Amino acid sequence: MTGSGGPARPAIVIAATPTPNGDLHVGHLAGPYLAGDIYARYLRAIGRSVIYTTCTDDSQTYVVATAAKRATTPQALCETSTAAIQRSLTAIGISMAGLPPIDERYRQSVLSFVTRLHDEGRLRARTVRLPYAEHSGTYLFDGLVTGACPVCLAGSCGGTCENCGHPNSFDELLDPHSTLDPAEPVSYREHTILVLPMEDYRERLSAYFEAREDRWRPHSMQLIRELLAGPLPEIPMTMPGDWGIAAPFAETPGQILYPWIEAMPASMYSTWWAAGQQGEQQPEAFDELWRAEHGAEVVYFHGFDNTYHWGLMDLVLLMAHGERYVLPESNVCNEFYNLDGAKFSTSRNHLIRGTELLADTPRDLVRFFLALTAPEYQRTNFTRQALREVTEQRLVEPWNALAEAVSLLMTGRAGTTLATTPAGRARAGLVLARLRSCYELGGFSVARAAETIADQLARLRTMAEDGPAEPGDLLLEVRTLLAGAAPILIGLAEQATAAGLELDLSAEPAGEVPVFELPRLAFHHQSLDNPTAELITRTPALDGAV
Fold it and tell me: What is the pTM assigned to this prediction?
């Protein structure tokens, strides 16, 4: 389903805010960014107004940790990483207006959002114990500290465990060590910060998830149930630190806003900025398009390890503003994408960067393979050999064979139209409905969409090469498949529409179809020994994973 507001309902699609501690790798792209792009493109194809956006998460401690490791400054790392992230998003065809600047308008948006909660009395002062690096005098949290998860005992950074998804705030991480200097002695010190108590919103949270349970994937929903079954944590709103936005509250002098609470005002600011970039009317207030009276359908795309943040913490931050904001319709969560059996990781240098892969493989092939192997319900694995073999066998070779067969069948018929039969229109309708069900929010699955495209392509190739009884039916079904594949195979769709072919995902199969030339797919890979594929020994995690 696309929401209760019907086809005219505006949509805001948010991909997890990337941490600018390096470029996006293929694991990132196969997760929230490509899936969010496919959903946004589908909504536009059926006539919905869509803003698809995100922004970099500059305040994260992972930036500080990575900058120290690379002997640079956090600011310099943010600048180079943001430029690299934008190049990767552009290279794979992510249909965003760009990454908005993290400037004074951004900071004022975040402060406005948080200050309203403070002024309305939603925040509480709490004295908590925090890990403390004795020599440097640094309070350790999130990417500055590593240890063992108190729930599953896996290695984890502070904040949340990427393995089980549970939070580990304040002094909960077992055997903590500084990521800046693992040998530095770590003790605990008490510090008074501001928090937002989640328990104040338990009743509303329970009702929210009960109404939307069928729109969540099972693993993430299991984590939400586990969290709701026990005492809900308190959200840190401020922390002692010197990288981030200075907290403006008299109760917490010298503190910063906790980096993770920026995600909601950052998403609102990004939506405001993107509206102007898309040529739409840009409201005066940064949060206007998120206000409840506009009824936007908000959908988040993120990884399982961010389920606590995007699924619970950020939801409470919206609820704490009363009825001011629309709440998300769904969180589409992906699992980890492995590279040769181990999780993609920027800080471990176990990765293939998106721009490197796209430098030697055509964009449509990359999008198809990442969609087909997307880690939607469980971890999946990427290898260059599989990319080469699968795209050649299931996409390029059958697609180009179909294009050649159609071209031969239509010789001498250019500029004409062909009639279709009820049977042909029925088949086209079935394919269209099947693909639309893959893109609709209730059963959203880019893997199932890519599988459907490959299956239908094989069927239509056989139909064309055997000589169809009704050539008009073949053309109609080919055009329907191309329209249904357009959110994934964006290059093919652009070529077809530039040639005048109408690709409509909302129209009923037509009684006649114009003769057209089906565009071909390019196929080019460099050697599987391409030196740009980085497969380097893993080291302890520093990722702010999306």
Answer: 0.93
